[in-house]
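Final report, closing paragraph on structural work. Over the funding period we assembled a curated collection of sequence-structure pairs, and we close with a single example.
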Amino acid sequence: MTILMGSLTLILLLLATLGAVAGIIYAFASRRGFNRCLVPYILQTRKRRTRRHSDHIHALICIADHFEPGNEGASPEIAMDRVRRWVEMYPRLLGQFRDCDGMPPRHSFFYPIEQYNPEHLDLLSELCCAGFGEVEVHLHHDGDTAETLRATLLEAKESLSRRHGLLPRHKDSGELAYGFVHGNWALDNSRSDGRWCGVDNELDVLRETGCYADFTLPSAPSSTQTRKINSIYYARDDPHRPRSHDWGIDVGVGPAPPDALMLIQGPLVLDWRRRKWGLAPRIENGCLQSNQPPTSERLDLWLRARVQVPRRPDWYFIKLHTHGAPESNQRVLLGDPMIEFHRMLARRSQEDPRFHFHYVTAREMFNLARAAEAGWAGSISEARDYEMVWDGHSSTSTRGPSAFGEPRGRALS
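Its predicted structure, as stored:
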């Protein structure tokens, strides 16, 4: 009897200890915006298994930059200097590198259309025309309506294309399109207080105005983080409630549902190698900034997230995000940390014949997701323009006065 009571006591103490640890981890996850997706994350454990040594990896690397030159209250002069530095330094520092397709590093500039400045975009278009990236649409808005949002997006699309020769088009129809990142992470009015959006049917408005895919997520540690993580999926809008993209249908699992928008998420995993207080794991959310440089160790975590389309299990979609305009982050993105990261990719590819890396823009990542969905058996290089082609300084661009008129105020955040 004494032995039995002692065993029960030990079991109870063990359960209490495990419960306390679980409580600490959950409390930490809650503070970091991870609690909503904790159960889906646990269910993905098997998916994140270590790959077999014989498996080939094609790492598709896209940097979605919430590129806000006016960030941190910058003056017009500082904002312009930030853009010039990118245009001048990017080719000089990173133009020496090539991926497995012979492509240089390619940056996706999601430009905040509410702080439109034609001189910024004229400079960025020159960088893109040289093959170093593409420009897409970023927007901060608050207390908006579906009608005003629709007008803003259509106006932006027209101006970016006609004035600056930017944005992609559907290969077959020639219809103008754009990729999107929502400011303040509040896609589809997903903040609980309703701030920084206001439009419950935003997914429908985006799709109807030509958005081919959204690249906002992950948003952790923001409370706007969805339950669905580490996925490329279709979300259908419920116009009567916010956060319709909380769940969706994985691309490639079945037919694409009608009236749905594709969302391409970046990696969101727990990093147990860097623990807070030696217990709670850090959150790896694919952010590149001054205190989060790209590294080989982070690459392994991005790969382990396995953001994939089932019919091409050798393709790993790695959508990273940053706010690349401020000087503090430029020191990473246009400095030694990024240079070393590109060198590391080249070394890894040379040392491991099963590892391949590809620099892709947001548009190209969408094209590759659609190609994988269709069971594409060809090369990545041939699928970069699978559905969307870049307008890129076409001869039809008039470079006339912008539809936006005069430059407007800086972004909210």
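Residues 44 and 146 are 35 Å apart (CA to CA). Residues 2-31 form the longest helix (30 residues). We thank the funder for supporting this effort.
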